[in-house]
Q: What sequence folds into this?
């Protein structure tokens, strides 16, 4: 894998924040607390964790127009932010959170492949620190709400070999591209896999799964180091 780092408390105002780096992919994740749930969850006793995702105009080689300028989000953006939200909710007890909402904003500062996996992995730390902020104010119990770690990694088949944590050049030329979201205890939250050319075999899929398992275990270990530093 590329070098991975987490810089906590990056944002002065957010209840939780983390600048996550996967090599040259840098994503700022901020967690914001609202002391009320979405309208459809009111009086349910449950809270909600959701996510928003975006890329800054010069996160890539050429300037991209801001989606706000076009008046709507693209399909890719919507798909990624839903993935981030699903991944984080998989390790949250929404009843223990109570009638509150936490929004994880994931803003890509610099992109070099794997922005969604970096966002999920860094988003977990921002969520953790938001819940820790709440616990310090007797609003919730961190260990009651956050049930496990969650991390994500990309894997693929590039030049006939199974590889992990693809950068842009590898990703753009990969024969198979996949993203794996897994918990700290090894549970699988989501798998996204696509053959870009010839279909991939079961054996190739299992080799990617083995890489992803080892990779997410390493990421969870780094998350643990970061939150105890």
A:
């Amino acid at each position: 894998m590329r070098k991975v780092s987490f810089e906590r408390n990056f944002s002065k105002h957010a209840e939780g924040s983390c600048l996550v780096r996967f090599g040259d992919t840098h994503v700022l994740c901020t967690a914001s607390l609202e002391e009320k749930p979405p309208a459809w969850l009111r009086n349910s006793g449950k809270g909600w964790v959701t996510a928003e995702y975006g890329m800054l105009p010069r996160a890539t080689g050429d300037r991209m127009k801001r989606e706000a300028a076009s008046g709507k989000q693209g399909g890719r953006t919507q798909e990624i932010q839903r993935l981030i939200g699903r991944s984080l909710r998989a390790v949250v007890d929404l009843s223990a959170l109570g009638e509150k909402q936490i929004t994880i904003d994931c803003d890509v500062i610099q992109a070099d492949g794997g922005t969604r996996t970096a966002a999920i992995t860094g988003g977990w730390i921002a969520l953790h620190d938001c819940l820790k902020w709440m616990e310090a104010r007797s609003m919730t119990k961190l260990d009651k709400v956050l049930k496990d770690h969650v991390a994500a990694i990309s894997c693929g088949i590039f030049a006939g070999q199974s590889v992990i944590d693809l950068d842009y050049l590898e990703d753009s030329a990969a024969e198979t591209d996949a993203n794996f979201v897994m918990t700290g205890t090894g549970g699988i939250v989501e798998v996204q896999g696509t053959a870009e050319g010839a279909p991939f075999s079961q054996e190739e899929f299992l080799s990617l799964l083995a890489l992803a398992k080892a990779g997410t275990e390493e990421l969870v270990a780094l998350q643990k180091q970061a939150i105890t530093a």
About this structure: Residues 57 and 65 are 6 Å apart (CA to CA). The chain has a mean pLDDT of 95.
